[in-house]
């Protein structure tokens, strides 16, 4: 067993590096928001070339963009539930497991790793401090951000047998 801080990993299990996690997060952001922004850009460009009386309404534009953001979000949610991976984590060959190395329940994964931190991030001033604290903890011996510690999860490399 390998030891990281007070965390013991089963033989052959290695923690994901901070760089792997960073790139996975970047891929997820582009995957989720990129499609919505692309659609928004296309509709806005089309709007410029259509006479004023035929332009799309703001509500219609917002609905289309939200739909194209929701689809990748649901795809990521599906992969999180089935494999403990988002699209970014799949590409980077890492996944989320509990501290014992087992798959964890989706509700705990979503609530403690996604929703609670997202709510905390939106508190004025304190949210930014929490964001920095959460990110800096990735460089600890355990390589766990604060949201990992709250959910009792680790991000490990995927080894195909």
Q: Helices, strands, pairings?
A:
Elements: E1 2-4, E2 7-9, H1 18-49, H2 58-83, H3 87-92, E3 94-98, H4 106-121, H5 126-136, H6 146-151, E4 153-157
Helix pairs in contact: 1-2, 4-5
What are the main properties of this structure?
161 residues; mainly alpha; two-stranded antiparallel ribbon; two-stranded antiparallel sheet; 6 helices; RDD family protein
Tell me what you see in this structure.
With 161 residues, this protein is mainly α. It has helices spanning 18-49, 58-83, 87-92, 106-121, 126-136, 146-151, and strands spanning 2-4, 7-9, 94-98, 153-157. The strands form two sheets. The chain has a two-stranded antiparallel ribbon with strand order 1-2. Helix 1 packs antiparallel against helix 2. The two termini are 19 Å apart. The chain crosses the membrane at residues 22-46, 58-80, 119-140.
Briefly, what is this?
The chain is mostly helical and 161 residues long. It contains 6 helices and 4 strands; from the N terminus they run E-E-H-H-H-E-H-H-H-E.
């Amino acid at each position: 067993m390998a030891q990281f801080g007070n965390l013991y990993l089963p033989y052959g299990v290695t923690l994901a590096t901070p760089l792997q996690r960073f790139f996975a997060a970047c891929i997820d952001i582009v995957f989720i928001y990129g499609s919505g922004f692309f659609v928004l850009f296309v509709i806005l460009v089309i709007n410029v070339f259509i006479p004023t009386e035929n332009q799309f309404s703001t509500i219609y534009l917002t609905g289309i963009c939200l739909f194209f953001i929701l689809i990748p979000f649901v795809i990521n949610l599906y992969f999180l539930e089935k494999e403990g991976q988002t699209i970014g984590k799949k590409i980077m060959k890492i996944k989320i497991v509990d501290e014992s190395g087992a798959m964890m329940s989706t509700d705990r994964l979503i609530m403690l790793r996604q929703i609670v931190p997202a709510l905390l991030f939106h508190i004025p001033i304190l949210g930014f401090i929490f964001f920095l604290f959460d990110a800096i903890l990735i460089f600890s011996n355990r390589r766990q951000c604060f949201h990992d510690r709250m959910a009792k999860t680790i991000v490990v490399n995927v080894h195909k047998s």
